[in-house]
């Protein structure tokens, strides 16, 4: 008669998988609630009928790459930066036309930074639907 071999009880690998799935569930529940929802009684302002205007201090870039500021033509980014005081150079607003090639926009932002602009902010249209 052979002695009965003791069989080791093997752990189920599904328990570890269930733990991981549960932790992922908790993570996504917490991550999804970080932003506070809007109050149900809050009604947002509608800007559909407002006329869009550029900020008065923005450098406007036309589709052909032409620069204007306050309806005046600007010859180069360096000339524009030279007209600004130190505080205005800290943040320069750039208002590009939608049809402006991306390559031109990147080149212009580099020129503004090289000329002394601290930050270059792109002013864009945002639609809430």
UniProtKB/TrEMBL annotation:
Q: Name where it mostly resides.
A: membrane
Extract the InterPro entries matched here. ExbD
Record-level Gene Ontology MF annotations? transmembrane transporter activity
Q: Which domain of life is it from?
A: Bacteria
| Any one of the GO CC terms | plasma membrane
How does it sit in the bilayer? Single-pass membrane protein; Single-pass type II membrane protein
What does the entry give for GO biological process? protein transport
Protein name per Swiss-Prot or TrEMBL: Biopolymer transport protein ExbD
């Amino acid at each position: 008669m052979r002695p009965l071999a003791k069989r080791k009880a093997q752990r189920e690998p599904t328990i570890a998988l269930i733990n991981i799935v549960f932790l992922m569930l908790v993570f996504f529940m917490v991550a999804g609630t970080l932003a506070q929802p809007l109050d149900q009684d809050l009604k947002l302002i509608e800007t559909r009928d407002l006329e869009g205007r550029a900020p008065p201090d923005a450098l406007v870039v036309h589709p052909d790459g032409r620069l204007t500021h306050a309806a005046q033509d600007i010859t180069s980014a360096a000339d524009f930066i030279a007209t600004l005081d130190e505080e205005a150079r800290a943040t320069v607003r750039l208002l590009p036309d939608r049809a402006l090639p991306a390559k031109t926009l990147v080149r212009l932002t580099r020129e503004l930074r090289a000329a002394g602009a601290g930050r270059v902010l792109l002013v864009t249209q945002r639609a809430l639907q």
